[in-house]
Amino acid sequence: MNSPRLVLSLVIAVAAFATPAWAQDGDETIAVIHSGDESHSFTIEIADDDAERARGLMFREELAPDAGMLFDFFDERPVAFWMQNTLIPLDMIFIKSDGTIARVHPEAVPMDRTSIPSGEPVRFVLEIPGGRAAELGIDAGDRLEHPRIEAEPDANR
Fold it and tell me: Does the predicted model carry a pTM greater than 0.90?
């Protein structure tokens, strides 16, 4: 038995279990919203620490129609956003832990300091270009598919 190989195998196995499931399962730069019979893909950035969430999409002068930013708060909680230092209109999509869209706030006004609340506890907020949610028919009750959203529990368990 080769001891260094065994140790390396054990280290790899432990690292695989220590890596969050969402990081093992897929590409985090793609988010798909399922709305009725339609699916809409977005290329996204992730904001999952305080500094990234605070900066968000501030100071951006443009955002491609199929681009966005996913804010992950890691647990459900009431959240509120504002548009200070944000130069482009945005749709804010408030999403529960299971991927269900709770609320869509359309066309948030650039540079506005008015608070935009989630309305209920959510885990995620997806910001996309202003007007895209209405254009694509995205609304409350639709679902977000992303590696950070855990698979639904098996109903037979």
Answer: no
